[in-house]
Amino acid sequence: MSSSPSLNTWSDALSGLSIGWFPLGLVIIAAIPLVFIALYALTYGVYGERKISAFMQDRLGPMEVGIWGLLQTLADILKLLQKEDIVPKLADKFLFVIGPGILFVGSFLAFAVLPFGPAFIGADLNVGLFYAVGIVAIEVVGILAAGWGSNNKWALYGAVRSVAQIVSYEIPASIALLCAAMLAGTLSMQQITMMQAGPGGFMHWFLFTNPIAWLPFLIYFISSLAETNRAPFDIPEAESELVAGYFTEYSGMKFAVIFLAEYGRMFMVSAIISIAFLGGWTSPLPNIGGLELNTMTSGPVWGAFWIIMKGFFFIFVQMWLRWTLPRLRVDQLMYLCWKVLTPFSLIAFVLTAIWVINH
Amino acid sequence: MSEYFSNIKTSATTIATGMGITLKHFFNAVKRKGDAGIDDADYFRQVDGLCTLQYPKEAIPTPPHGRYRLYCNIDDCIGCRQCDRACPVQCITIETIKATSDDLEACGKTSGGQQKRMWVPVFDIDVAKCMTCGICVSVCPTECLYHTPVADFSEFNVKNMMYHFGNLSKIEAEAKTKKLAEQQAQAAKEKAAAGGAPGAKPAPKPKPAPPQA
Ligand code: SF4
Ligand code: SF4
């Protein structure tokens, strides 16, 4: 499906830009999410998570470097840069080195289809949602490469657990997203968002326009936690049982890249859940009578603002959950996936289908 | 089947409760726990808010009558070694030299007016070992050994935890030892000159037999 040109004005214009043979525009388009991930991971991801976790535990968090410890993340980066880049002697060097790379690429690739606003999307694929769900699976390869390549039993355990977990949770996650796709009648992220735009603001969102959307919404949120290895599904990492799971052996910048990938994935799933159920870049404010709040807060810049805010909200919930719940046991994890989430996602799927047919 | 649903219900409600608690703490982070010390009536009522103490900059005041770091007022020490013997962990090291009779004036008196008869060239307290049990304090006859309210005396080098209190320098101590030896030799000579046979001590009394059971 070719999207209407008005949808992608910025990214279309950018991708046409090139200096001689060099496709400068494409490079800029690719760099935008990268810069975004880096900035957000540094500020909100690392610093924010530290502060949020500290506040939830009645602590202060970093305070010494800069005002309120604001420069702590920079100090950490300097520290990581100075660290020796160790590759264990008996590790499978090739796998060990490319593991973090695959992990990062896996989370970064999905940003291609995330609409960052009504006028900017890297690639408006007509199978965008499907692509986003599928590309996450690359992460499994990265984790396996890292875990196996480390030649360390903890790392291998972590990696195997992670594969079991991610492969299992892909199922309820995908079925839950299918419900959203059914409601929209399309797999294109930009189209799904457009379906939820309107003068009523949040009233057009799938979560509020039909009575069963909360079920796939919840199921996708829970599964997305598992796919990003966030607590309470962080058994691949399991720092108290497995030291640090699949990245036990990593040091310095490789470790940093693994974390960057994790924060990238966190935003990615948060953005996907916002797009599928909460209207992506559409403004939540409704037009009330003469007060055109919705019209005022729409547009390319506002769109980027809204989707980032929605993503950040879900990241906050992920952090909030992380500092609330203990880690699940492996059997509980599988129970939750196969005996709870999967049946309920199938029920949600059928109910959504009935609802869509009757409307 | 009903257990299945009740489990789901329990999980949902318990997760909601737990998240409520953490969120409450998150928003309470704008507050600070008060800095009421342990002897404050409000100590246990400071429930909400951050509890991190940024230590070197902020410290909970220790009670003015606290008993923490051991201190020896060496001017009052009579070198009786009671504390040394009483200490369960042997963290006090004392060396004493008897003052010669012409030195008694220089040796001085304790603040209680008692004549000191010992120089104490070495009085070391290893505060790293001291467990502040206070036994030494209770046996000290001149009350010159006591715990101070200073609670924070950490050091980077454990050697610095050895506190020296002696009242003589090494050279002075040598001089005093020499002087004492000379005087003793002198006294022995005088005694010999006076004709007292050295072995003429009266035999010790036999101990009374233990009572028969
Ligand atoms: S307080 Fe106790 S441990 Fe410390 S020096 Fe005195 S007797 Fe020894
Ligand atoms: S008990 Fe007191 S007077 Fe005696 S040696 Fe110890 S500190 Fe000095």
Describe it.
Chain A: Its EC number is 7.1.1.-. Chain A: One of its GO terms (cellular component) is plasma membrane. Chain A: It catalyses: a quinone + NADH + 5 H(+)(in) = a quinol + NAD(+) + 4 H(+)(out). Chain A: One of its GO terms (biological process) is aerobic respiration. The complex is a heterodimer of chains A (359) and B (213). Chain A is mostly helical and 359 residues long. Chain A contains 14 helices and no strands. The longest helix of chain A is centred in the first third of the chain and has 33 residues, at 24-56. Residues 1-5 of chain A have low confidence and may be disordered. Chain B has 2 domains: 1-61, no CATH class; 69-183, 2-Layer Sandwich (Alpha-Beta Plaits), CATH 3.30.70. Chain B is built from 5 helices and 5 strands. Chain B has a 3-stranded antiparallel beta sheet, covered by helices on one side. Chains A and B meet through α2 of A and α1 of B. The structure holds iron/sulfur cluster (SF4) (2 copies). One iron/sulfur cluster (SF4) binds at residues 72, 77-83, 94, 139-142, 144-145 of chain B.
